[in-house]
Amino acid sequence: MPKKEEKLGISVKKTEDFSEWYNEVVIKAELAEHSVIKGFMVVRPRGYAIWEHIQEYFDNRIKKLGVKNSYFPLLIPEKFFKKEAEHAKGFAPELAWVMDQEQREKYALRPTSETIMYDSYANWIRSWRDLPLRLNQWCNVLRWEVKQTKLFLRTREFLWQEGHCVYETEEECEKETLIYLKEYKELCEELLAVPVLEGKKTEKERFAGGKTTYTLEALMPDGKALQMGTSHNLGQNFAKAFNIKFFGKDEKEYLPWQNSWGFSTRLIGALVMMHSDDKGLVLPPRVAPTQIVIVPIYFDDKNKIIKKATEMKNMLKNYEVELDDRDGYTPGWKYNEWELKGVPLRIEIGPKDVEKKHVVLVRRDNNKKEFIKVTQLDKKVKETLEDIQNSLFNKAKKFLNSSIVEAKNWNEFVKQIKNKKLVKVFFCGNVKCEDEIKEKTDGATSRLIPFEQPKKLGKCVHCSKEGKFLVIFGKAY
After folding, report:
1. Distances in Å between the alpha carbon of 463 and those of 201, 202, 445, 450, 459?
2. What is the mean pLDDT of residues 348-374?
3. Residue 1: is it exposed, middle or buried by C-beta count within 10 angstroms (0-12/13-18/19+)?
4. With contact defined as beta carbons under 8 Å apart, do 18 and 350 qualify?
5. Is 274 helix (H, G, I), strand (E, B) or coil?
6. pLDDT at 3 exceeding the cut of 60
7. Cβ–Cβ under 8 Å, residues 419 and 376
8. Which CATH code, of 3.40.50.12780, 3.10.120.10, 3.30.110.30, 3.40.50.720, is assigned to 405-474?
9. pLDDT-based confidence at 6, cuts 50/70/90?
10. Neighbours of 398 (CB within 10 A)
């Protein structure tokens, strides 16, 4: 029986205190919680089940592209980082170290795996016949420079996947770098119902040591962008640093071309922020750990109702279904709890429903109730879950489209940034200029250079020099 003082629901509104609302949803929906170790989190079973759905979806996709899974050590020798200077400098503030007392050697706890993996690649690759090499690993990484923890979005340790591929030609490398970005987009939009913008990063935001970084950016309801995944064309920089070479068909020695690509559990944070409401978690059916909950309503005829509810569960065996037949909780309490946990569809069945051979179907996304004949249940459930998935995406897409604006001058740009918009402007590409924009706007950064660029470019919004490209700026996580 729930304790009287236990507060089941969310105590703050999404529109009034977004940060606290998000924190409550994640914790009360039992997705994750803060660890006793500062900067770390505990991912609870319901949260990890979402990650498993993401893993399963993406793992199947990349295996069809010829990618194989592997695992490399958590500890990375300090000397490996020194081999690629820009990479080492980029990650230096985020590294956590352990010391081998006997050897007096320092090891970094994995922030990303380029260096440890490419040391092995140098031993494995000898000939053009060894290429392409496509490996992925699912693992944890540590980034120590975290000032303020935010569950799933900003923690010192998080889970991710990282793919690392090696190619014979530059063309093949570039082509597949963009293929993995496309796979990320489909994951975000088809599975998570989160619409994204795609493009490449500016020089300032480019991956340390890479040639080109391609990115997907989503916009959260609080007006902040969230990077959903990146795919990096590394060029030959790491091949040079780690002495990865191969003999071509002409028996001459060449440097190969490489890419790396990754996303993390911050996708779960995006999912929560994008779709959830003041009642709690809202999940798209394709990624929900429980898609349907059946709540039996009974008085003196418990066995009869439970029997019918069990038959219904068996009828829906192709879905993730839970039958909530717990004693000591009222139906109303159960409704609230399952709404809080984000189950997309609720089925209510009581004595009158059994008598009339129908059930009540309740959607989590819009609270719409519908009476459905038991004979039509399987068909209706399939249609409704698909409609929920599409409705969540369309709602988020409408929000994204309405939040992208253009600015013709600096004052207009600053105004739109304050209005929590993603702002399209012409930009010179200079790193110093970008730093000044960030400083003057209290944190606005370039999110991406869209693939579709206008034929004619104007002056940079900040320094008035010739613009190199159209860029989308915004505040971000």
Report:
1. 20, 16, 15, 21, 8
2. 96
3. exposed
4. no
5. helix
6. no
7. no
8. 3.30.110.30
9. low
10. 11
So where are the chain's domains?
A: 27-275, 290-382, 405-474
Of all residues in the chain, what percent carry a pLDDT higher than 90? Answer: 90
Closest residue by Cα to residue 25 from 275, 385, 395: 275
**3-class SS of residue 416:** helix
Same fold, 290-382 and 405-474: no
Give me the CATH code for the 290-382 domain, please.
3.40.50.800
Q: Is the pLDDT of residue 319 over 60?
A: yes
**Per-residue CA distances from 380 to 191, 383, 394 (Å):** 21, 5, 21
Confidence category of residue 76, pLDDT binned at 50, 70, 90: very high
Residue 98, strand partner residues: 107
**Residues sharing a CB contact under 8 Å with residue 33, sequence separation 6 or more, in sequence order:** 26, 27, 41, 42, 44, 151
Mean pLDDT of the chain: 95
Q: pLDDT tens, 259-311?
A: 999 999 999 999 999 999 999 999 999 999 999 999 999 988 889 999 999 99
Q: Which helix (H) or strand (E) holds 378?
A: helix 377-402
Phi, psi of 25, rounded to the nearest 5 degrees: -60, -50
Superfamily classification of domain 27-275 = Bira Bifunctional Protein; Domain 2 (3.30.930.10)
- Evaluate if residue 57 carries a pLDDT over 80: yes
Using CA atoms, how far residue 125 sits from 239, 241, 247, 253, in Å, is 11, 15, 9, 12
pLDDT attached to residue 383? 98
Q: Residue 266: which of 111, 189, 151 has the closest Cα?
A: 151
Distance CA 114, CA 117 (A): 5
Helices within 4-105 (DSSP H only): 18-28, 45-64, 78-81, 85-91
How much is the pTM?
Answer: 0.94
Q: Look at residues 205, 207, 256 and name the one whose alpha carbon lies nearest to residue 235.
A: 256
For 377-413, write each residue's pLDDT tens digit: 999 999 999 999 999 999 999 999 999 999 999 999 9
The token pair that represents 324 in the structure block: 């909530």
Instruction: At 186, list the tokens.
Output: 């489909």
**Residue-level pLDDT at 7:** 64
CA distance 262 to 140: 12
The rounded percent of the chain whose pLDDT value lies above 70 is 98
Q: What count of residues does the chain have?
A: 477
CA separation, residue 313 to residues 46, 282, 323, 349, 418 (Å): 20, 22, 7, 12, 50
d(CA 268, CA 277): 15
Q: Please give the Cα distance from 442 to 205 (Å, whole number).
A: 17
